[in-house]
Each structure stands twice: as structure tokens, then as C-alpha cells.
Amino acid sequence: MTRTHNIPWMRISVEATAIVASILLAFAIDAWWQDRQDRIDEQEILAGLKSEFVANLDTLTRHLAYAQRDVQTLESMVMLIENSQSNNANSIVLETLDEMTTPATTDLGNGTLNALLSSGRIEILQSKELRILLTAWDGVIGEVWDDQANNAKMVLEIYIPYLIQENYSIFSIVESSGKLVDMDRLLADETFLTLVKLRHGFKSHLVGEFEQAISEAAHIIVEIDNSLR
What is the pLDDT of residues 132-149, one digit of tens each? Predict the structure, then answer.
């Protein structure tokens, strides 16, 4: 009698176990499939990020070279004002005036990164180091953008108005002798020397910002490559 009564309960237990097992298997298959899809999505995102940061690195490297050239020009201008003699004084003055009246900008593409961050899916990237670097990138490149904005502000609100106020030649206007108009007055202008020195300090700082951004971009590319392997 006892054995007869136990059979339905054993059957129910077996069936319940089978149901639970099938549910767990379904969850496992779903998790496997989701992870597989996440890894596919991750590879696509990484490819987009690499393309983006390789382009950014190229842009930053070119602008670093421009900024370093500007620093050299401004250093030559300071030396010219302080010594009042140079074999290429005209070109130094022209290059300095051009630098001080050109609000350079840096165009960087961060569409893939911005989309990833705004989507809230950055955790799809398995590399913790890469996630940290990408999250911090906005602060790094923000320093460059802020300095570029300050650059434009200085040019448009300080340098150009001063040169116009003092009636200095902003463009390549020369006398028949090949000497720049107003060069003697320009070289004797203490305010202009101060502006050049301020500009030199700013551009030297900008060089440092570009170098930092380049270092971070290169680090990000290395981490992306590691994740793509």
C-alpha cells in the first residue's frame, strides 16, 4: 500500500525536477546567447572606437606640431624684440602677427564614444582599464577644447583689437625696401612684448595639453587592440 501511494509523488517529483531543469537550461541558453550577442556588439563598438581614436590621435599630433612651431616663433619674436637684430626679422614678425591673429581650432570626432556613454552600455566592454580610460577621456580632451576656446577669445578680444588700436599692420604689408611698415615701433612696444610673452606662455601650456591628450589617446588605442585580440 505504501509503495502504491509513493508512485504518484515520485512521478510528480521527477516531472517537477524536469521542469525546473528545463527552465534553468532555458535561462542558461538565453544567457549564453545574450553573452554571445554582447561579444559581437563589443567587437563592433571596439572597431568603431579604434577608428575614432586613430583619427583623433592623428589630428592631435598635427596640432601639437603646429603649437610647437608657434612656440618657436614666439620665442624668436621675444628674442627679436629684446635684441632688435635678426637676419630674418621680417619673417619672424609676419609669422608672429599671423599666429596672434589666427584662432586655431581642433576638430575631433567622438561620435562612437559619446553614443556608447549616453547609451549606458559601457559595461559591455570587458576591459575595466579601457572603461576607465574612456570615461576619463571627456575630461582630458575637455582641457584641450577649453584652451582652444581661450585661444579664440584671446585672439578676438585682446590681440586683434590691440593691433588695430595701435594701427599695426596685421597683414603682409611691406615697403619697397622689403622692411615691414611699423617694425621699429612694434619692436619698441613694451605692451606688445608683454602680449607676446603671455601668448608664449599660453601656447607652451597648450603644447602640454596636446601631449597629455596624445598620450591618453595612444593608451586607449593599445587597450582597444588588446580587447580586439
Answer: 999 999 899 988 888 888
Give the list of residues 6+ apart from residue 31 with CB closer than 8 angstroms, or none.
none
Q: What does the alpha-carbon distance between residue 117 and residue 113 come to, in Å, rounded to a whole number?
A: 6
DSSP result, 153-188: HHIIIIIHHHHHHTT---S--B-TTSPBTTHHHHHT
Q: Look at residues 34, 68, 53, 45 and name the one whose alpha carbon lies nearest to residue 220.
A: 53
- In the chain, domain spans: 2-228
Dump pLDDT digits (tens) for 207-225: 999 999 999 999 999 999 9
220-229 per-residue burial string, b: 16 or more CB within 10 A, e: under 16: bbebbeebee
- DSSP-assigned states of every residue in 97-131: HHHHT---------HHHHHHHHHT-GGGS--HHHH
